[in-house]
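Hello again,

I reread your note about wanting to compare the complex against the isolated chains. To keep things tidy I'm splitting this into two emails, and this first one only covers the full assembly. Below are the input lines as submitted, including protein chains and any nucleic acid or small-molecule components. They are followed by the predicted structure of everything together. The single-chain runs will come separately.
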Amino acid sequence: MTDVTDVHDITTRPAQESGPQNGSLPPTLEHADQWTDQMVAQTRIPMYDVPFVTVGGGMGSFLTVDYLRVAGGAPVSDIRVLSNLSHPWQTYEYLTRVSQLPRDKRIRSDSSSRPDNIWGFPSYAMQEAAREATVAPLLQVLLEPVFADFYTPKLGAVLDGIEREAHRIRYWDMLVQGEVQVVRRRVGGGYFTLIAPRGGQHPVTFRSRDVHLAVGYPGVRFMPDMRAFRERLGDFHHVVNGYEDHEHVYQALCRRPGVVLVRGGGIVASAVTDRLISDRLRHGLQTQIVHLFRTYYAGAHGPHGWARRRGSNGFAYQGFNYPKSTWGGQLRFRMRRMETASDRVRVYDEIGGTTTAWRRHWQRHLREATRAGWYRTQAGTITDLRLDGDALVARIQGPEAETELGFDYMIDCTGLDADMTGHRVIDDLLRHGGAGRNPLGRLDVEPSFELRGAASGMGRIYVTGAASYGGYFPGVDTFLGLQIAAQEVVDDLARRGMCRDMRPVRSTVEWLKWVANRRI
Amino acid sequence: MVPTLVGRIQTRLFLLAVVGGIVTALITPLLPADLPMAQRYQATYIVLAAVAVLGVGWELLYHLLQQWRWEKDWPMLFGLVTLVPEGLLVWALASRDLLPGLPGPVPTPAFVIHFVVVWLIVWLVANGPMRVPFIHWRFQGGQLT
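Full-complex prediction:
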């Protein structure tokens, strides 16, 4: 695990001195869509002035702040990161670890998709080649994806790089830890962001011109059948989500044979399945695996030759979370030009569906397990989940008939919760902040990622990451997508005078500082 | 960088003009050709210009081929191996005296060395260092404007 580094302490003198308030919002603030300085002053909640705050403190905040700091013109004192996390990769590392991607495994990310380096140069492959004195990563990049799998970096290298960059931009000098409660518009322009600092201290308010929001997914998604089963039986042991810590399942299968139902066709399902297969092969176990797909892809699919995606044995295959042209190619341009939401929804449908990566060693394992008869796939959805003696039984509605399946464990890999109202700040913005939803139900943003309807005088709210999915740019919830969004946000901030433009000379000078690991 | 059609063309013209121009200036005196220096430079820059102009047509073809790829990408290897058809076409035109402005026959070894060296360096720059000064370039499908 990564060390937790020092965290910014609110020691600078506030614009307004502390009052006795504690706990939830005072009623005068709770019900007002816009707050005046006087309203806040009357509550005696301490108030700090800072031009820019980012709410979230995960990868989205980090990438935006990194870009902003590199662009220049926005010193550490002008930025605050408001977060309940101690370091930006905390949630990401947790989710990758429990979903079977520990630090020594390769994540599903491109060689030049570097959250710690806004230029993407040198790439991860170049770095690995230099570090390990081998040309293999470079050859892989040269031959990908036709004659080799896409090169993907090891999680450890990615996280180490982020930590280095976080120190370089003095991330922890900007971090304020606590639970952000609301962001409200300020009469006269700008915003108030209320945060309850960690440790039960009194809430404080940041008065800023702009706010950036990158709060990620509200949580792990639990399908209705799974939720009902857990509520009914209180069993959190046999039915787990791939994004929950479920190491006990693998440990139990080492002790006695069992049948595992894996549900989902994404990258987590692939990683979980491969862990089960690898464990069986390595330890000589007797694990049986049944893989359930709601949408079963038997082969290549798509309406015509220009829109056909590879697929087989239930899976749809794609190098990364989205087609590569999402991140700056023709798909990005096509989407950006679409003014009507219905057109964009059509494209989202076209590129949608859960996909996983085609990796040669995974394919080898799947072939071997299928041939031996202890891995099989099935199409369908679970209509009922119950306990029958010691075993679990699922009723599965397939394309033609309903069947029953007995098993010992279910690992559900259907993803994260996409309902953004599950996040308090977003819910509040929808109710009080003028924000609206896009046709996919998430927050409606401009191409610059400005939250539509939430402007406050000269102030703007920017939303990047999962909450902005459904807008003009599809790849929002990926490293490179967050970086593209950060570029759009910082470009807009530069136009509005907060920071400098990243022109060629400035960009090159800043890159040289990055190479030298010079603190900025 | 995952190119768009406009990005492809802009990147090709920019890199050939800047990187190709500098590389050509540096290696022309070293090429194995029995020609006066002025004619050497005339020949190499005409070849460079031909790669740029004909390249616009090639880019249209590559863009068309790219449409059959789900990812709508253009792998690094494709950018390298396309030197073969493009080099053969320019060589065919040069050897038949079909490139206007050429001072005379171009010696084969000199053509090959010049073409391959320029191609490799332009390809390497496009696949990495280009992102340093032009930080928007890779997210704009290779467009510079």
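For quick reference: The radius of gyration of chain B is 16 Å.

B.
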